[in-house]
Amino acid sequence: MESEWVTADMVEATEFPHLANKYDVYGVPRTVINETIHVEGAVPEAMLVNELMKALD
Amino acid sequence: MRIKMDKEVNMPLLNDTIQGQVRKTLEAMTGPVKLVVFTQSADALECEMCAETRALIEEVAALAPAGKLTVEVKDFLADRAATEAYQVDKIPALAIVGAQDYGIRFYGIPAGYEFSSLMDDIVTVSKGESGLSSATKAAVARVNRPIHIQVYVTPT
User: Fold this and answer.
1) Prediction ipTM score
2) pTM above 0.80?
3) Closest Cα of chain A to B49: distance in Å?
4) A57 in contact with B at a CB cutoff of 8 Å?
5) CATH superfamily assigned to domain B16-141
6) Domain ranges of chain B
7) What are the b/e assignments for A5-20, b being 16+ CB within 10 Å?
8) Domain segments of chain A: what residues?
């Protein structure tokens, strides 16, 4: 909501096993940012923002 | 709120207790929200949870304050223009649209603990206010290229 550039999906892993495999999803939640940045588990807001900013590098 | 999926689609998916909780949560809605559900026509075998997702969303919409929550059902293949406009690439899919389309999508049925996320998202989108910290908002304002976030979950 805070940026026109950002889109966010919830993806139910068991219905899309090929995607779960693609992103090596074993434990959930697993957050994938722009294909290559992965975050395991439920993390605090500030940490998620940190990971998000890495996508700008 | 957590819902468990029951494979018998004929009965209501949400029991009375959950219906009450949903009704109460959605009372906090201010602006109208549109839930755009992408599914596939009834005789297609490929989409396991399409029928249930559509039924669930329609049940939820019926529990919102009058006129606040509407549902649009689109066929993933037949409504190609909508599929492309909402950039949906798999089904079942749900777009939560308020004053604008913020790019929020749910892929797969929002059951289990994700149901709570769905309720929260509807209210948040309805208010048009993310509720994020000012530090987060400042950081996100610096984003200048597409960022696609996918959160993988399971319906526990």
Assistant:
1) 0.95
2) yes
3) 8
4) no
5) Glutaredoxin (3.40.30.10)
6) 16-141
7) ebbbbbbbbebbeebb
8) 13-54
Longest dimension (CA), chain B: 49
Comparing CB atoms, the residue among A13, A31, A45 nearest residue B136 is: A45
Instruction: Please tell me if residue A52 touches chain B, with a CB cutoff of 8 Å.
Output: yes
Gap from B47 CA to chain A (nearest CA, Å)? 9
For chain B, 156 residues long, give each residue's pLDDT as a single digit of tens: 777 665 544 567 899 999 999 999 999 999 999 999 999 875 666 787 898 999 999 999 999 999 999 999 999 999 999 999 999 999 999 999 999 999 999 999 998 888 999 999 999 999 999 999 999 999 999 999 999 999 999 865
Is some CB atom of chain B closer than 8 A to the CB atom of A14? yes
A8 with B90: Cβ contact below 8 A: no
The DSSP result for A10-44, as a single string, is EEEGGG-HHHHHHTT--SS-EEEETTTEEEES---
Residues of A in contact with B117 (CB under 8 A): 10
Cα distance between residue A10 and residue B118, in whole Å = 10
